[in-house]
Specification:
Blueprint: H1 6-15, E1 23-26, H2 31-39, E2 44-47, H3 52-61, E3 68-69, H4 71-74
Parallel strand pairs: 1-2, 2-3
């Protein structure tokens, strides 16, 4: 995205009346940034190197109202508040 990053786009969506459920795909595994993505309104967070099956699972779960968190950063999220 040439003018926004994923977090800014999720924040803008959260402030709008659109019923979009953003999925963030990033290279960063930092638990703080993962938490920021969910606080900004993301419904899923995947690493760009995640397996295709993870993307399929996220795409199937998010429209049902679930969230999806890629497997790798989940290990460091014990003390990060997602909400």
């Amino acid at each position: 995205m040439p003018h926004l990053n994923g977090l800014d786009a999720a924040r803008q969506r959260k402030q709008s009346t659109l019923s979009v459920k953003p999925t963030v795909m990033a290279m960063n595994e930092d638990p703080y940034l993962v938490g920021e993505a969910f606080r900004a309104g993301a419904s899923a967070y995947l690493l760009k190197q995640a397996a295709g099956l993870e993307l399929i699972e996220a795409v199937e779960r998010v429209p049902k109202g679930d969230t999806y968190l890629t497997q790798n950063p989940a290990k460091g999220l014990d003390d990060v508040s997602l909400l």
